[in-house]
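QA checklist item 7 of 12: single-chain prediction sanity check.
[x] sequence parsed
[x] length recorded as 625
[x] structure emitted
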Amino acid sequence: MWIVDSSLSSLLATFENIRRTQAENRERFPDLEDRASRLKEVREYAIRENEALWRKARENLKDNGVRVFFVRSGVEAIEVVLSFLGDEKLVVKSKSNVTKQIHLTESLEARGVEVVETDIGDRIIQIARMPPTHPTCPAASLDRYEIAGILERHLKRPVPPDPGTITGLLRDEIREKIRCAKIGITGANAVCAGEGSLVLVHNEGNILKVATETERQIIITSREKIYPDLDEAINMVKVLTFYGTGHITTSYIDVISGPSKTADVEGMLVPGIHGPRDVILIVLETPGITSEPELYHCIGCGNCLTICPTYRAVGDRFGRESQLGGIGLAKSSITDPVEEVFYCTTCDLCRENCPLEIPVRETLLKIRREYVKRYNLIEGHEKLIQNIRETGRIFNEKPPEVGAVKRASIVYFRGCMSTFRRREIAEAAEDLLNKTGVEYTLIDERCCGSPVLKTGTGIEELIDHNISQIEESGAETILFTCPGCLETFRDHYPKRYNLLHISEYLSEYLKREIEAGKIELKEVAEASVTYHKPCHLRTDAPEEILREIPGITYREIEKGCCGAGGGVRSAYPLLSRAIAEERLQAIKETGAQAILSACPFCKENLKEGEQPIYDITEYLKKMIE
């Protein structure tokens, strides 16, 4: 039914190159965070004041000699393009995600027009008849051997797998097509309202040729690409370039403010000198810009794809045609939700690695609820939700007896996974709490509601039951060993409790007791450890504990996902396993003797690794026994 893509090595290599380049160049961009913050404010303003900015842009573009057409659909956009083609049967085109989304190339080809992509990567996937796999590196999923084979079939001649030879052959073919073409089609990275200018960003120089060596330039963009002025557009380009490629600047930034013209002879204006005599801008309506405005803050850098655990496992199948990854699915599913929105592990790494901190996860969760409302639960989630409806827990099993709820200042909320599958975590947590001497109680808890939220349904009854039990105890503080439970309480329960992961509580306790000489930590066999931080845990307390323990060699690792979250493990076990395997490989490369985590789901999904995995509570229990 569902197979993980095992042929993504080229894509992953490209992603690692981008991230390595970012790390190498980060110090050369000291004001990156300030620029990203400034860009975020501008994008919020541009979407909020979209109508007003476009009125201003239209006026100034018209004054500059650019003809502007606003269209409501891809079909309308294609009709406008056709009206300007006349009898021309050759069009040269540069990279444009908007034109991919409206299927411009396919529509023109169906009418007998030859369309030639002039970006090297786009030309490769055009010849191969493949979709793009990254907005700035469209052919990232192909290695040079595969590309050479594609070109051999296309050119009907041997092509060595040498990048220089490959790009040279493509360049020569593209140049000849540009020389013969009278119509050029490009996208636009930004439209500057204040100047009535269009900004186009590229590295290869192809857009410059398409824009200047044809008689008519047609620019197709969408409403979210508006900026107040050129200064803010250039700031966007700097941020886009770093997050999209890792470099400090791009090779070319073209600013087009109208057709090519001169008035050097008696001051009389003559169009079409060293560039097109006609510039047409087609602006496509963006349906979701009012309902989900934050999605359209996106500048299309693709940095979220490089870190997304699902995209790294299945490539462009976590997307919809040319709209890639979580944000692509979110945009394309606002009015028409598809099952692929459930591929997301809800790790939120996309937001953490986005220069504009776009909350894609929250939008996907809303779309999941709409999907379930329209079509029903997906296979794999039905049993889970049935168990919760029947027993209040994700497993249809009898929980351990907890007795009557006693009065205490603290409730330890075990969570379903620590109660039924990873009981050693709950036992270690309770043992540690007993050692601290704190008064705490357990409750007859129900599922916190996290799985329900992430599979598309509601949690009100679960909240009511758990709150009634907590109120009976009189507790003001609730401790958790499951980050998913903790996050659900923080985001969906009444805001009247002090909510802590148990590591936060233990961190303060250990610091105090060790300094006072009341506790001496024992040595353990696995003294070299790495820590896998759970995606939904917002505290660094486990790392702080590890750094303070004498005799421990703590090997840090970049944050990543175990693959269990978001209902992925129950609905798509193969995908969950593939994500876990990539994470385990990264962990193995640290050379650590053991893996530590702070989540029962992470422990469950990473238990097949070569190193043993312990929850932070288990590890501490061994040290202070």
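[x] summary fact logged: The two ends are 48 Å apart (CA to CA).
[ ] second reviewer sign-off
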